[in-house]
Automatic annotation (TrEMBL):
InterPro entries: Aminotrans_V_dom (IPR000192), Aminotrans_V_PyrdxlP_BS (IPR020578), PyrdxlP-dep_Trfase (IPR015424), PyrdxlP-dep_Trfase_major (IPR015421), PyrdxlP-dep_Trfase_small (IPR015422). It catalyses: (sulfur carrier)-H + L-cysteine = (sulfur carrier)-SH + L-alanine. One of its GO terms (molecular function) is transaminase activity. This is Aminotransferase class V-fold PLP-dependent enzyme. Keywords: Aminotransferase, Pyridoxal phosphate, Signal, Transferase.
Amino acid sequence: MLRRQFLNRLGLGMGAAFLPASQALALGASGNSNPQNPANAGPISQGDWKALRDLFPLTRDYIQLATFLLASHPKPVADAINRHRQAFDENPADYWHSKYLTIDHDIAKSAADYMGGEPQCIALTDSTTMGLGLVYSGLKLNSGEEILQTTHDHYSTDMSLAHRAKRTSAKVRQVALYENAWQVDVDDVCQRLKAAIKPETRVFACTWVHSSTGVKLPIRAMADVIEEMNRTRNDNEQILFCVDGVHGFGIEDQDVSKLGCDFFIAGTHKWIFGPRGTGVIWGKETAWQRSEVVIPSFSASYEVWLGTIEQKQVPIGEHMTPGGFHSFEHRWALPEAFKLHRQLGKDNVQQRIHQLNTQTKQGLAKMSHIKLHTPMATQLSSGLVCFEVDGMHPEEVVKTLHSKGIIMSNTPYRKTYARFAPSLINNENEIEQALAQIKALA
Ligand SMILES: Cc1ncc(COP(=O)(O)O)c(C=O)c1O
């Protein structure tokens, strides 16, 4: 029946072909091959951060202030991965056949329920880097048209664009949106952006929250600048606004389809607590129309190749989802992470992370041997707190704190800073202990 459900969803109704005989062995409507192992242990109460912490197998030997790097799987996600893994190990062909035509849509639907936008406009990826690589490789540009990016972007944006430039001779230029992170100013950012856009600019690429400084860019205000410029441009000269949103996603209570950008690209294995090796790209329908596929999709588009349906019947997000077999037990468990965030409440999540971040920044700001680089304002920062300790290289700071039982990181940029990332798995007491160790470095 799966194929009929799938074709119905595409609006093709009855008369569709039936499943191959092997799929008659499919693992039941729920796809749960292991009914002894329920999907999760029941909803968590909003704001119960202690109960949330207990869902993670993270060692308690350390205070964890760098979990955003790569998620530890919370219990509902780990349980879902185990269920899928067991079913694959028992009967890979049947399990895959029982789900492959509908599961991408179901995952995109759970992503849209969390992040906003339509599921049809969401592509599934393995990471932020994969999403950035796909978008920046696939964008259609004519000769002489350029991509503008910022000097604050992560390696993954920089190199996706550099590789694109090398392959196709596309022009890429950079703009600095601020000189001093601590003093970043919305009007100044917008003026710098406006001044940097040239008649030949067709794409503006940036990063929502900078993992180099902790600055959160005012994406909505920047989108207003671009929208105003687009109003006086012809259809074929419109500027596309693309955002690496991986930091901020899983923190901010934001419908990304209302943020003002055309593409929002993020991994879901950082702040979202999704399975390692997962990510999403949301794009406006009009933005996807300006992109070419880079890696062929294995879902509905395969039917087009088989001659069963037409390309226009395939949702654009599915068409843009890179195909081939993946570590499906991870990808298919992603809805559990979105579900957990929705149970916690997006507003509670935002409030809690900013509360712990503010406690951290206020504590650091009182220390005379510390130079704080992240802005104090919650409107201009999110999740990450970057700073320097007088007379100590950031790597030495990280090493010293590790020896005291605190895991932090230093920013992986040419100019590196020490970095705390207070998150939902931390508490006020842990932040005070980390601050005390930083104070002791004076
Ligand atoms: C701003 C930013 N973008 C992209 C990445 C890469 O993310 P992923 O591991 O999901 O590819 C990172 C860090 O890992 C980052 O800090």
